[in-house]
Structure formats: C-alpha cells, structure tokens
Amino acid sequence: MNELFPSRADRSGQYTAKDIEVLEGLEPVRRRPAMYIGGTDERALHHLVAELMDNAMDEAVAGHASRIDLELAADGSVSVRDNGRGIPVDPHPKFKDRSALEVILTTLHSGGKFGGKAYETAGGLHGVGLSVVNALADRLSVEVARNKTLWRQEYARGRPRGPLKKVGAAPNRRGTTVTFHPDAKIFGDGLSFRPATLFRMARSKAYLFRGAEIRWSCDPLLIPASDSTPATARLHFPGGLHDYLVSALAERKTIAPGPFAGEATAGDPAGRVEWAVSWPEDEQGFFQSYCNTVPTPQGGTHDAGLRQALARGLKAHAELVNNKAGAKITAEDVVGGACVMLSVFIGNPQFQGQTKERLTTAEATRLVEGMVRDRFDHWLSAAPETARTLLERAVERADTRLRRRQERETKRASATRKLRLPGKLADCTRNTADGTELFLVEGDSAGGSAKQARDRETQAVLPLRGKILNVASASADKLRANQELSDLVEALGCGTRDRYDDSALRYERVVIMTDADVDGAHIAALLMTFFFKEMPKLVAEGHLFLAMPPLYRLSQGSTTLYARDDAHREELLAEAFSGRGKVEISRFKGLGEMPPAQLRQTTMSAATRNLARVRIPEGDDPSAIKQTAAIVEALMGRKPESRFAYIQEHARFVRDIDV
Known about the structure:
659 residues, alpha+beta, Heat Shock Protein 90, Ribosomal Protein S5, domain 2, Rossmann fold, 5 domains, five-stranded mixed beta sheet, 21 helices, 22 strands, 36% helix
C-alpha cells in the first residue's frame, strides 16, 4: 500500500508555475488523441479517413464538387481527392507569413465553416479534422489545384517539412488531394486500414448525397481472398437512401410492397431531410442516421423527430379506423425491427463531442417530425391494407412489451418472498416436476370432486371459473387483466411466448379435464387456444393432455361400465351387456356430480384412465403449422365471417349435432 500511496515525507519537489505546461500547435492531439478521434484503436484509425471524406462531401453538398476519389495504396497510405474549389493557398490575413493552407493544417479550430458564408451546411464544424489527421500522420502531403495552378506541401507529424511549393500549371484540374500515412507511434505497428471498412464508408457517402460520384480504388494485394470488396468501383446512386435500403434488404420479405421513402426541404438549403423506412417480416432491423453526411451511430434529436412522426402518424391512423388498441403503441413499437435510413442537412448542427456520434440540435426534432409526419399520413391513407398490417404489427409489439413489463414487475414483487401460488390451486406435495400433473377443471364444484379424487403426491387441481377468455379474439389488455389466466400462468411458472422456459414448468403434464358435453368441449377448445397462442412450446414438448371423462354410467347387476358419448354407449349396449335384464343408464350432469371414487376410477387414476395428448404438427412441416394457425384463427379469431365461411365449407361433413 505504501508503494501506491507514498507518505507526505516521501514526496519531493514543489508545485510551482514552472510545472504548468502550455501545449502549442498540434501537440495536444499527439498527447491525447482520444479527445479528438475517440481512441487509438482500429475504429479511431478509420475515423481519420472519415474526417477527410467529410471535408470532401461538404464541398459536394455545397455544389462545388461532383467527384470524390478514395484510394488505399499498397504501403497503407490513403488518398482523398475532390474536384471542388481547393483549399485557399494565399497568405492568411492574421498570419501573413503563412498560407491559409498551412494555417488549416497546423492550427486547431481553423477553417471556413464557422461563419456560414463558405458552407451553408457542413459536417466538419470544429475546424480540427484536417489538422488532427496531420498531427497523427507520420507523413502527409496535400495538393491543391486552384486557379489553374497546382500547389503542394509536405508534412510529418503535424509539422511542415518545407514551404508551400508551386508545382506548375494545372489547366484541367481543380480541388484538393490529401495523402497520409498513420503514425505507428500513435496507433502501433499492428493496425492497418481495412479495405472493406473504407469501401462501406465510401458507398454510404454516395448514397447520402445523390449529386456526388465516388470512385474507389484499392491495391488488390490488400484485399483478402475471402473478402468480396472490389479493387475498383464507381459509386453513384441517383435514388439516394431509397436505393440503399432496397439494396440492403435484397430478397428479404417486407410487410409493405416498397419502402416509405422521400425527401423534403424546409424552404432553404439549410433544412433538408431524406428518409427511407421498411418493415421486414423477420424484424431484423437497423437504424442508421446521418447529419450533413456524418454518421450518428448514437442517434440524437433527428432520430427522435422521425420516431415521433411515425408513432404519432400510426396512432392517428388507428383513431381514424377506430382501432382502440392503437392508443398504447409507442415509437419503439413502430420503429423496432424496422430498417431505417435518415439523413438531415442543417446549418450549424450541434454534436456531442468531436467524433460527432450524437446530434444534439434541438430544432432537428421539430424539422424532421414536421416534414415526415404529413407524408407518412398520406402514405398510410394511400395503402390501407399495408397500414392495417403495420398497425397490427405495432399493436402486437406493444402487447409483448407490456406483457414483459408485467412479468418483470411480478418477478420483482416476488423476489423477496416465497413463491405465491393462486389461492384456488390445490398443489401436490412432490417438490420436483417429474411425474406430476396439473388438472384444469371447470368450476368449484368439479374442483371439489377432483381434489378428493386426486393423488395428493403427484396431482394438483386448479378450478377455473366458467368459460375462460378467448385469447384469439380478446385484446392484450383483457388478457393481462383476466384473473383466471393470470392464475394459470402463475401456477405453471414457465412464462409465455418468447419468455417460455420449459425447465421452469412446475408439472410434467397439464391435463384439461372438462365435462363430456358441448359446454365442456367449448371450454377445452378455449384452453387449447390459449396454450397454442401463449405457450406453443408447452404443447410442442408434449405436456398438454385432454382427459376423457365419461358421459354415461351403464349398470346391469354387478356389471358397471362407462361410456364417453352416445356412440360409445350404443356400442357397449350391443357388445358388453346380455339381453336379459334391464340396463340402467344414467347421464352425468357434470364432473361435479360424479362421486370422487368414480371420478378417480374413470378419469384421474393413471391405472384406469384414458388421456389424449394434444399435438402441434412437426416443426419440419411449416405448411402444416401455418394451416393449424389458420384454422385456429378462423374458428376462434375476431372475424365472425371467417367462422361462417368455415361452417359453410365443412357443413356437409357433419353427422351429429348436439344442440
């Protein structure tokens, strides 16, 4: 400990004015590069190229350049060339012994983007980009073709190696070319530029500004055999972000025929927004945003504007079509899983930090929302079927979000106390799930008989009050508020949908035990619908069963048999009973009317009962699963016309009707 924190007596020297250092020129950049490029790793290395590309793109966006060249040479150096106006080379008014070019390359916070006269919109704002690249390069050369004359100057680690030289006439050339090699003293010997990363950067810049053509070239020896990056490419996309999104999605299926895309200007060049949004069916999305062609991976105020526009637009459409469930959707429900591209051009943007990863300009939210909202409203109105599908998707995501929040709150509430089970649950005594069963019965009367008839060690009973909620047609709000289903989920302990955990299931079998009549069949259908919708993996793993209680009791003398239905009754009468003597036939009114001994013998005892396992078509047959889902939706869903059509189509197959 003494080595870490020496005592006062061990300390030598005094703290005086001589200890105060003043770092001049570009020395602060070399001492603390992370303050300017975010570190000294591979990401920071490529940020140097991004700074140069941003400067070239600013010239293009300002209307002074139409072509940008990005070249990666065999020695690891990078060149960025544009055909813009070229950096001024005349003496600077404040530093008359130096050219404006040298001032820009050797002085922090120097440039032509502060006053707004040279650039109405720009990605380079702080006047440090080019000087930082110069400071962190072991060699850098800059060529400027301006007024039909070519100029060149060489630098090493931020210092000029000589004066600005006039090379000669350049009648057919204009613009700036910067070539640099990163300093190994800063980045180490193991880092080098990746062709794939630089190519993606060049391609994204071309998509962001359709008026620029970017030419990419790379020494073929630098491209690995497994890399598909081309050695040369001409990048120009007149369709802008729309083209990029279509290319990125490729063959992936989306819920809309085409992206919601467009661009708008706020009446002046310093306020322009372009966007493209698509919703893939697999919900593997991304959100890429830019400000003045600078990527903002951490989002910011422009992201917020787009999210608000989409969320408020879809909620307004829900009100228009009288879909009350739309009121609960949020921006994340709409944007989550979507592929989003957003680009804004604004004057004097405010970023968080020199690396510009997050936009903080407050006006950007209002600008983006105002431009996108009206166009989104029109897009939804023009495609009602797409709007309906998109709304259903957002509502489903909202339901999932609310259900997860409720599950988290339940877990937090019960984290410090013993497992809370529903009050009506008569649990079994065995502590493990192996060999245990949960019987779901209809009503307290049947529950009372089942509790007396059960094997207390392995069989649990949960009475349900009447017909449970039809989850295929009920809203998510009603599902969450339904006490019977909440008790059932809590008793099982395994969660629902994507949060289902088979290892947490408290019982090996779940047995639906209802009366052997039409009402009982309806309740069983409702429960099977619940498990199919909310816990399909429970069914797929073979945990769900249907009990087969008898409907009739037949007795003659000492012979007593039980019949499941009318057909089984007639079969027993014909085969199991002799013609002599009267056969007494009694029909059970329900499970609650059966003596516990008979219920145990006929329905609950593993030695004498019959169970029917409920199955889902095997996972290797997607068409069968889709067909099952379609039947469940037709018979149990919200559209009565679907049930009517199904009945009409299959009525000819019906033999017996129990009304």
